[in-house]
Specification:
The structure is a single chain. The chain is an alpha/beta fold and about 425 residues long. The protein folds into two domains: about 210 residues, FAD/NAD(P)-binding domain (3-Layer(bba) Sandwich); about 130 residues, Polyamine Oxidase, Chain A, domain 2 (Alpha-Beta Complex), CATH 3.90.660. About 30% of the residues lie in helices and about 25% in strands. Strands 7-6-17-18-19-16-20 form a seven-stranded mixed β-sheet. Strand 1, helix 3 and strand 2 form a beta-alpha-beta unit. Helix 8 crosses helix 11. The N terminus is likely disordered. The structure holds flavin-adenine dinucleotide. The site of flavin-adenine dinucleotide has 42 residues, from helix 3 and helix 12.
């Protein structure tokens, strides 16, 4: 059931909706978002993609309701569950962790003053239309991600230099991306997006329920959880990262290529973030905004730049070798390691430390990596295979998209999985 629309507010139609005033530009960007997703070659644009875009929050056309079990309550599983439920299917979502969101994780502790920081998804580029469309549908406010004022600091080759906000915002964070000034974030935390999906799926999500095995035959699928509960389904959508796919036993076994991908044949990037809250925003004494880059390399963010209060949070965003280097350390040593380096970036940083925290996605047992990062050879060999349905079992997730490492990829892929299931044979009967 959809939430009630709060009085005085108008709810936008969901992405893929046609009730209310048609919006051709939105339709077009949604259509493009879905069309450019990888692994869609088997999807007929007219038959499947366009109707998704045009129907009012439902998948196209009437289909017999199916019993669908979705493995994983990350963005891919939630968007699929949301759209399938609205189309009348009977959805059950099984999630291993005691929370929803997967790699969307907003940390509110150990911070004070209502501060928060993102361990996972944080920024939304202006060309991620599907992410923006769902955020808008749920009335989530999108606000600038990067600081608009002050100086950005750069520390490279032992030299500290400063970049005015105007120059920094008018350049992309990496080649090919939109400029930093075009990035937004969800006010109040990225986890408001998965929570919005979950609000409309309330009783269908089972937390702390890892799936251990999935068996299918011609007539249906049975899904067994670690607690021993067995769920019968017409179709299953498996959205777990490839790094943890082999924690589930499939009968019959998955294809050799999927097993190869799950067995380490499809690389994932490691990433770890270290957060520190400071009693004062001491960096402002130098007109710094708390953001910057170093040649460690790392990105430094100040997620509290747009919040009131004396205290502020800084975050070190480490990837690849830097993440591998810091992961084996205790949390205290991770913080110490970043502080040592930051002594050159923000002189006097130690004097103001309140508390710290860190998060490693590689060490998280339900991710074992931050995002799919295949070599060109792995991508060429396995891209179409990792999202290919096997009998009654369908697959989706960030890894099965052209947007590795983005919520947009999980949304595109989750929608593709939902469309497949909606059009597949095998109703409840
Ligand atoms: C450090 C980092 C930074 C990022 N930055 C951004 C950003 O700025 N902007 C952006 O748009 N995106 C960003 N992303 C990417 C984005 O978070 C992901 O692409 C997206 O959330 C992936 O969603 P998913 O549903 O495909 O996978 P997941 O979120 O991993 O969901 C899969 C779910 O399956 C569950 N699961 C696993 N195994 C089982 C099992 N056996 N049984 C039951 N459940 C199971 C997991 O617990 C998880 O909840 C970032 C990610 C990371 C890690």
């Amino acid at each position: 059931m959809m939430k009630e629309i709060p009085s005085g507010k108008t709810r936008r139609n969901p992405p893929g909706s046609s009730t209310g005033a048609p919006d051709p530009s939105r339709r077009e960007f949604l259509r493009r978002s879905v069309l450019i997703a990888g692994g869609l070659a088997f999807v007929s644009c007219n038959d499947l993609v366009a109707p998704v875009v045009n129907s009012p929050g439902r998948l196209p056309g009437y289909r017999d309701p199916k019993k669908v079990v979705i493995i994983g309550a990350g963005i891919a599983g939630l968007v699929a569950g949301f759209e399938l439920s609205r189309a009348g299917h009977h959805v059950t979502i099984l999630e291993a962790r005691p929370r929803i969101g997967g790699r969307v994780l907003t940390l509110r502790e150990p911070f004070t003053d209502g501060h928060l920081a993102e361990a996972g998804a944080a920024r939304i580029p202006s060309n991620h239309h599907l992410t923006i469309a769902y955020a808008e549908y749920f009335d989530l406010e999108l606000v600038p991600f990067y600081s608009r004022g002050g100086l950005y600091v750069k520390y490279s080759g032992g030299i500290r230099s400063f970049i005015p906000a105007s120059s920094y915002l008018n350049s992309p964070p990496w080649p090919g991306s939109v400029n930093r000034g075009e990035y937004t974030k969800i006010r109040g935390g990225t986890d408001r997006l998965p929570r919005a999906f979950a609000d409309s799926l309330a009783n269908t999500i089972h937390l702390s329920t890892p799936v251990e095995s999935v068996a299918q035959n011609l007539f249906g699928v049975t899904v067994r959880t670690a607690g021993g509960t067995v769920y019968a389904a017409d179709r299953v959508l498996c959205t777990v990262p490839l790094t943890v796919l082999n924690r589930i036993q499939f009968t019959p076994a998955l294809s050799p290529l999927k097993m190869q991908a799950a067995g380490g044949g499809y690389n994932y990037a490691p990433s770890t973030r270290v957060f520190m809250q400071f009693s004062t925003r001491f960096w402002e004494m130098e007109n710094l905004n708390g953001w910057g880059n170093t040649d460690w390399p790392e990105e430094i963010w100040q997620p509290t730049w747009d919040r009131e209060g004396p205290r502020g949070v800084l975050m070190s965003y480490l990837r690849y070798d830097r993440a591998r280097e810091i992961d084996p350390l205790t949390e205290e040593r991770r913080i110490e390691s970043v502080l040592t380096r930051w002594g050159n970036v923000f002189p006097g940083v130690r004097d103001h430390l309140d508390s710290g925290a860190s998060y490693s996605w590689f060490l998280d047992p339900w991710s074992a990596g931050a995002w799919a990062d295949p070599t060109p050879a792995q991508d060429a060999a396995l891209r179409t295979e990792i999202g290919r349905a096997e009998g009654r079992i369908h697959f989706a997730g960030e890894h099965d998209s052209l947007y590795h490492g983005w919520m947009q990829g999980a949304l595109v892929s989750g929608l593709r999985g939902a469309v497949e299931i909606h059009h597949a044979d095998g109703g409840v009967g």
